[in-house]
Design a protein that fits this description.
Layout (H helix, E strand, L loop, with lengths): L2 E3 L7 H4 L11 E8 L14 H16 L8 H17 L7 E3 L1 H10 L3 E4 L2 E6 L2 E7 L4 H5 L6 E5 L2 E2 L5 H8 L6 E8 L2 E8 L1 E4 L2 E6 L2 E6 L6 H14 L4 E5 L5 E3 H8 L8 E6 L5 E5 L10 E6 L6 H13 L2 E4 L7 E7 L5 E10 L15 E2 L26 H12 L13 H13 L10 H17 L6 H11 L1
Parallel strand pairs: 1-5, 2-15, 2-20, 13-14, 14-18, 18-19, 19-22
Antiparallel strand pairs: 3-21, 4-11, 5-6, 6-7, 7-8, 7-9, 9-10, 12-13, 16-17, 16-21, 20-21
Helix pairs in contact: 7-8, 8-9, 10-12
């Protein structure tokens, strides 16, 4: 199994193409993990009298036994209980507090497992094709010759066209040490490559650019601190003392991992965060077992999807290491959750504390405003155009989809004269030029085929020529070299 991303019209294009396979981490910050009492315990919860609990039991009995639309099945009775619990939890209005069934618990905890067996690539589904976004350093994929921008057409002879990323992940995964044949379309030319599966760390990648160590951290998973330690050793061995830490689209993870990661940059006794419960009691979380690396300067990249643990990490390094931040304002989650496991395998993940930085900064609902606020091109924040069959726009019409297409065409260098949704003559010429360049009939009409191609081209350009467009990274490089 390897990195993957999925396509969602509700998700920003930039975020959508960067999130990782199996890291379906809802913006979360898990403080700990406990085992609750047996779910069938008959004791009355604190603050609720017996009559109210009896009423709840009576309603359940009616719905299970007498309700006309009910069913005489264990599945139905289980659903009644799940629905009752979910109703109680959801009614409180905290989007970070969830009741999870046993299957949902397995999926959630699995989403924070950092090591998987695969070949070390990150990819997305785009217009029915599987586009390789990243090839990890020293991975089986890199050794096999797979490159960013390749289109995976088949795995072991099984076609991947019009396939989901989950389907492709199932084809790629297998036993450690076994071979997998990857069929590639590389700029129109077929290529056959063979990779040998291995255990892959999924949450940290690194590179050295102009003597600067660039660390990309996608989540705070169960093995992320160990992964980070290995990458830092590689960078230290190469005399790196200036770092860019990319936390864009990092939605959080485990607090235990956060503490270990801070220990690579901070001294013993320095404050990671201050936790406060609903009674005002505080726990000051300090670095223990410091393994501090030698560094001269740290720049951190954040954006609106950097949340929770990544925000704690950013604030801790700002206050203790003098880290400079670049990007856009982070999500703003100053809450932490505890996961309580019940004997039947279900669990509740609930907000039990807020957190503040060591200097008392509370970012909930506000986020971290970067020291250097830089926004990428608007096209990278837009949803897919998602045209219906037969939907067409042409000269002298007005539409929000035209406005989005104008922004994307501008990103691709086709220079429409405006981005307000009015289909001008210059917009028509830009569409015609795009159609001509991509082998379409150049009629200047924005239809589903052309819109899909524009979507595809924007994602492809961003992921294969990122150095041309990532002005946030450019600024970070400028600052870290000062």
């Amino acid at each position: 199994m390897d990195y993957k991303t999925t396509k969602s019209n509700a998700t920003l294009k930039l975020i959508m193409v960067i999130v990782f396979l199996a890291l379906a981490v809802t913006i979360t910050f898990v403080i700990g993990y406990g085992v609750g009492r047996f779910a069938g315990n008959s004791s009355t919860p604190s603050g609720i009298n017996d009559s109210r609990m009896n009423t709840l039991q009576a309603v359940y009995d009616i719905m299970a036994k007498d309700f006309y639309y009910g069913e005489d099945s264990e599945e139905y009775r289980s659903k009644l209980i799940d629905d009752a619990i979910n109703g109680m939890v959801d009614a409180q209005g905290d989007i970070h507090t969830d009741y999870m069934t046993p299957e949902e618990v397995r999926q959630f905890n699995g989403s924070l497992e950092s090591n998987i067996v695969g070949i070390g690539i990150r990819y997305t589904e785009l217009d029915g094709q599987i586009l390789v976004l990243e090839v990890l350093r020293d991975s089986p994929a890199e050794k096999a010759g797979i490159q960013e921008g390749d289109i995976i057409t088949a795995v072991d002879g099984v076609s991947c066209r019009e396939s989901s990323v989950d389907y492709v992940a199932d084809l790629v995964k297998g036993q450690i040490g076994t071979s997998v044949k990857i069929s590639i379309d590389r700029m129109g030319k077929p290529v056959e490559l063979t990779a040998v599966r291995a255990v892959i760390g999924t949450t940290v990648s690194s590179e050295i650019r102009d003597g600067i160590g660039i660390l990309r951290i996608s989540a705070f998973g169960d093995q992320t601190s160990e992964e980070l330690g290995e990458h830092l050793k590689y960078l230290e061995d190469n005399k790196v003392t200036r770092y860019i830490i990319d936390l864009r689209n990092n939605g959080g993870g485990y607090a235990q991992t956060l503490d270990k990661m801070c220990a690579y940059f901070m001294n013993n006794g320095e404050i990671v965060m201050v936790e406060e419960d609903r009674n005002g009691r505080q726990i000051i979380d300090k670095v223990k077992n410091s393994q501090k690396v030698s560094y001269d300067k740290i720049v951190i990249l954040i954006n609106e999807a950097s949340a929770s643990c990544s925000e704690v990490f950013t604030m801790a390094l700002k206050e203790n290491c003098g880290a400079v931040t670049v990007g856009t304002t982070s999500y703003g989650k100053g809450l932490a959750q505890l996961q309580k496991l019940f004997r039947d395998g279900s669990a509740i993940k609930y907000t039990d504390v807020i957190w503040k930085s060591g200097n008392g900064v509370f970012i909930n609902g506000k986020g971290i405003t970067p020291d250097y606020e830089i926004r990428l091109h608007d096209a990278l924040y837009m949803p897919y155009l998602n045209f219906d069959d037969g939907e067409v726009y042409e000269y002298n019409q007005v539409s929000s989809k035209v406005a989005a297409a104008q922004s994307m065409l501008d990103f691709l260098g086709y220079n429409p004269d405006r981005r307000d949704g009015y289909y001008s003559e210059a917009t028509r010429q830009a569409v015609m030029k795009f159609q001509s360049d991509n082998g379409f009939t150049a009629d200047g009409r924005l239809d589903k085929k052309t819109a899909t191609a524009i979507d595809t081209k924007v994602v492809f350009e961003w992921n294969t020529n990122k150095s041309n467009y990532d002005i946030q990274m450019d600024k970070a490089m400028e600052l870290v070299k000062e």
